[in-house]
Amino acid sequence: MTARILDGKAFAAKLRAQVADAVVGLTKRGRPAPGLAVVLVGDDAASQVYVRNKVKATEGAGMRSIEHRLPADTTQDALLQLVASLNDDPTVDGILVQLPLPRHLDSAPVIAAISPAKDVDGLTIENVGRLAAGLPGLVPCTPLGCMLLLDAALGDLAGKRALVIGRSALVGRPIAQLLTQANATVTVAHSKTRDLAGEARRAEILVAAIGQADFVRGDWIAPGATVIDVGINRIVENGTARLVGDVAYDEALPVAGAITPVPGGVGPMTIACLLANTVVAAHRRHGDVAPRWSLKED
Ligand SMILES: Nc1nc(=O)c2c([nH]1)NC[C@@H]1CN(c3ccc(C(=O)N[C@@H](CCC(=O)O)C(=O)O)cc3)C=[N+]21
C-alpha cells in the first residue's frame, strides 16, 4: 500500500479560486475588493519569501495587498501606532503581523492591539476565546487549512481518534479545538508525553506540529492513518538546503492512508486560508453572510 498524497498546492489553488469567486460576488454587490495588510518588521530572509508569496496570492485572488515593511529597529510604539492606523483604515479588512518579531519587540501587546474583526491570524484573545467557546470568529490559517484538508480526505471526522503533537498557540492548540468541534476524539501530545510512539500508533488522524525534522517515524503510524504534517524545517544535506516536515515522509508513505508532503502540503493551504479569512472578515464587516469553504470532490 502507498498513501494518497494530499496535494496541498492543488487544494490551495481550488480554495483560492473559491476566494476569487467570493471577491467577485462582493464587488458585484458594490462592495470594495477586500484588503489584506501585512506587516513585516526587519529583514529575516524566510519571512521575506512568505510575504512575497502572500502578496502574489492576494492580488491573484482579486484582492488588495497593503504591505508595510518596517526596519529591524522599529520601536514598540511605532508598531502599535501602525496597527492602530490599520484598524481605523476602512480599506483594510485583514491585518497580519508577521511573527516572530525582532527580539526587542513584545508581540503580545501588538497582537492585542489588532481589531478582532480584522485579526485574520485568529491570534487575539477575542478570537482564541471564540474558538474555545465554539462561537463564530476568525480561526488561525494553518489549523483552518489542516481541517479543510482533513475534510477533503476523510469527510465526517465524528468518532475518529486524532492525535495532535504540539500545543502552540498558532497551530497545535487551535487544531485540537477544531478537531474537537468536528467530534473527533482528540489527544494533545507534547514534550512531556509518555510513550508518544504508542499514542501515535492509536491515532487514525495524526497531526504533527512539533518543528523538528523527521521527528515522527514510520513505525509510529497506524496502517491507513491520515497524516497531516505541519512542520516546515530547513535542513542542509550534502551542502544543499531543502525543506522537510516533522514526519519521516519516506517511512510514512508505505504505511499511511493519506499524507501531506512538505513542501506542497499544509504551507500553501496556510496562505490560501489567509485570503479566505480576509474575505470572511470583509463579508462580516459589511454585514454580508460569509462564504463557507469546502475542498471536497463535488
Ligand atoms: N503572523 C504569522 N502568521 C503566519 O501564518 C506565519 C507567520 N506569522 N510567520 C511565519 C510563519 C510561516 N508561515 C508559512 C506559510 C506558508 C508557507 C509555505 O507555503 N511553504 C511552502 C514552501 C515555501 C518555500 O519553498 O520556502 C510549502 O510548504 O510548500 C511556509 C510558511 C506562516 N507563518
From TrEMBL:
Q: What EC identifiers does the entry list?
A: 1.5.1.5, 3.5.4.9
Which terms does the UniProt entry file under GO BP? L-histidine biosynthetic process; methionine biosynthetic process; purine nucleotide biosynthetic process; tetrahydrofolate interconversion
Please tell me where NADP(+) binds in this chain: 166-168, 232
Question: Can you give the residue ranges of the Tetrahydrofolate dehydrogenase/cyclohydrolase NAD(P)-binding domain?
Answer: 140-285
GO MF annotations in UniProt? methenyltetrahydrofolate cyclohydrolase activity; methylenetetrahydrofolate dehydrogenase (NADP+) activity
| Pathway stated in the Swiss-Prot or TrEMBL entry | One-carbon metabolism; tetrahydrofolate interconversion
Q: Kindly give the Pfam families that the UniProt entry links to this protein.
A: THF_DHG_CYH, THF_DHG_CYH_C
**Reaction(s) catalysed (UniProt annotation):** (6R)-5,10-methylene-5,6,7,8-tetrahydrofolate + NADP(+) = (6R)-5,10-methenyltetrahydrofolate + NADPH; (6R)-5,10-methenyltetrahydrofolate + H2O = (6R)-10-formyltetrahydrofolate + H(+)
Q: Which residues form a coiled coil?
A: none
Q: Which UniProt keywords apply?
A: Amino-acid biosynthesis, Histidine biosynthesis, Hydrolase, Methionine biosynthesis, Multifunctional enzyme, NADP, One-carbon metabolism, Oxidoreductase, Purine biosynthesis
What are the annotated GO cellular component locations? Answer: cytosol
Q: Where is the Tetrahydrofolate dehydrogenase/cyclohydrolase catalytic domain?
A: 6-121
- NCBIfam families given in the database record: PRK14186.1, PRK14188.1
Say what the protein does: Catalyzes the oxidation of 5,10-methylenetetrahydrofolate to 5,10-methenyltetrahydrofolate and then the hydrolysis of 5,10-methenyltetrahydrofolate to 10-formyltetrahydrofolate.
Family as reported in the entry's similarity comment: Belongs to the tetrahydrofolate dehydrogenase/cyclohydrolase family.
Among HAMAP family, the record links this protein to: THF_DHG_CYH
Q: Quaternary structure?
A: Homodimer.
According to UniProt, the name of this protein is Bifunctional protein FolD
